[in-house]
Specification:
The structure is a single chain. This protein is α+β, with helices and mostly antiparallel strands. The protein folds into two domains: 209 residues, H-NOX domain, CATH 3.90.1520; 128 residues, Homeodomain-like (Arc Repressor Mutant, subunit A). It is 54% helix and 10% strand. The protein is built from 17 helices and nine strands. The strands form three sheets. Strands 3-4-7-5-6 form a five-stranded mixed beta sheet. Strands 1-2 form a two-stranded antiparallel ribbon. Strands 8-9 form a two-stranded antiparallel ribbon. Helix 3 runs parallel beside helix 6, helix 4 runs antiparallel to helix 9 and helix 10 packs across helix 13. It is globular, with a radius of gyration of 21 Å.
Length: 365
């Protein structure tokens, strides 16, 4: 499997942050931090692992865990290159946020963005598969950027109207709560089930100042080409796997037709192309549910019944049977073994030889 990548935009954002911090706090030995090299083309990507090491080095040296908030609070759409310029030329905030949903993977392949409408609000959900500490930084950067750019897009005279309903993070606060209140100016919750921005639909209907449909069309074509280039480097099986991981857990397992429609191909084409990769949809679904089930079971805060329902099983008995087939033990036994060993993040179940983590993805290597 190809290693996940991110836009080199992130290198620029964190490098600029380092330069500004060096000016403010010269006593910090920031010269010891190795800055990744970037190319002249802003469409180039760098390995996610490189950014994770870069960000980890910054946090370790500076002891600042809120750098995602610090950067996002002062973001300008142009900081995100062609992606940001496209957002500036959308007609409404609704169109802009849907563009983000469609192409967030161009910025970060570890991101999975989902939009959900619920009553009078739109839920902007962001799942990140980055390593935990860096993932927190990148999610906070993305959320702060979204809120800051929304205010910028409609113009300074409308800033008072940009007020999100709520911001929710899966992780605990990385800095003082007042810092989050200052950045987001709305209720911020932590240790939630999802990373999401809850935004009123009335805000999304507001027009973007100085939008140009012609410019957007031109930029959209270039973004689509970049998307095609990225997709050509990732197997369909891997992309189906990534889509299922973002879908399963809240909506159950989708049928193959839904997946085919997501990738704008026919059902027969989906099956044919998976067959060419020696895969089939049923097996992929089973492996995705297996990997997600194991990850969720080792988290003692998740009720087994909720896990069963979230993964689309008819009842807990069906879930127990499937889990025993995967691991040779029941979910409760598996959880007790991990609690006893104190290795909740361990990717193996010693006595049973059950390998966890991203085994499915390794099948696409």
């Amino acid at each position: 499997m190809n290693a996940l990548t991110v836009s080199q935009v992130y290198v620029s954002l964190f490098s600029n942050y380092l330069e500004q911090l060096q000016t403010k706090r010269p006593e910090l030995q920031l010269h010891k931090i190795s800055v990744p090299t970037i190319s002249r083309s802003n469409s180039e990507c760098v390995p996610l692992e490189l950014i994770e090491k870069f960000v980890s080095s910054i946090v370790k040296t500076t002891k600042i865990k809120s750098l995602g908030l610090d950067i996002g609070e002062h973001i300008h759409p142009s900081d995100y290159g062609i992606f940001g310029y496209a957002v500036m030329n959308c007609s409404t905030l609704s169109q802009a946020i849907r563009l983000v949903e469609s192409h967030a993977v161009l910025l970060n392949q570890a991101f999975a963005v989902t939009l959900r409408e619920l009553n009078d609000n739109m839920h902007f959900e962001l799942e990140s598969s980055s390593c935990e500490d860096v993932g927190h930084v990148l999610v906070e950067l993305q959320f702060a950027s979204v809120c800051q750019m929304a205010a910028f897009l409609i113009g300074p005279h409308q800033k008072t109207d940009i007020c999100m309903t709520e911001i929710r993070f899966k992780h605990s606060p990385t800095t003082d709560i007042s810092r989050y209140q200052k950045v987001f100016n709305c209720p911020v919750l932590f240790n939630q089930e999802k990373n999401e921005i809850v935004v009123p639909k009335t805000i999304l209907s507001q027009e973007v100042r100085s939008a140009s449909p012609k410019m957007l069309s031109m930029l959209q074509k270039k973004i689509n080409r970049l998307q095609d280039e990225m997709n050509n480097n990732i197997s369909l099986g891997q992309r189906v796997c990534d889509f299922l991981e973002s879908y399963v857990g809240t909506n159950g397992v989708p049928n193959a037709l839904i997946v085919a429609q997501h990738f704008n191909i026919s059902l027969s084409t989906l099956k044919k192309r998976l067959h060419q990769e020696n895969l089939n949809y049923t097996t992929i679904c089973d492996e995705v549910r297996r990997n997600m089930a194991i990850k969720m079971v080792v988290r003692s805060s998740d009720q087994l019944q909720n896990i069963s329902e979230g993964l689309g099983f008819a009842n807990t008995s069906a879930f127990n049977r499937a889990f025993r087939r995967w691991t040779k033990v029941t979910p409760a036994e598996y959880r007790r073994a991990h609690l006893k060993s104190g290795h909740l993040r361990n990717n193996g179940f010693s006595a049973k030889g059950c390998q966890l983590s991203h085994e499915l993805k390794s099948n696409f290597a």
